[in-house]
Amino acid sequence: MVGGTAWPALGIQPSNYNEHATQLAAEATALLELDNSKHSKLSAQTLNDFLNSIITFAKKIL
After folding, report:
1. Which of 4, 8, 49, 55 is least surrounded by Cβ atoms within 10 Å, i.e. has the fewest?
2. Could you give the number of structural domains in the chain?
3. What is the pTM of this model?
4. Predicted confidence (pLDDT) at residue 16 exceeds the cutoff of 60
């Protein structure tokens, strides 16, 4: 968690592409804050879940 903010639930991908894009933006923001804080390390699983979500989103809009 960053600054006490709840971490987004990775791996849950809304079927609506607008909702999915909103979720990706929130997750990317949280990842950037985590990276900038340098207080926590990003797990490989978290990164994997995020990248899989991006791939799923891209397939929806193509």
Report:
1. 4
2. 1
3. 0.63
4. yes
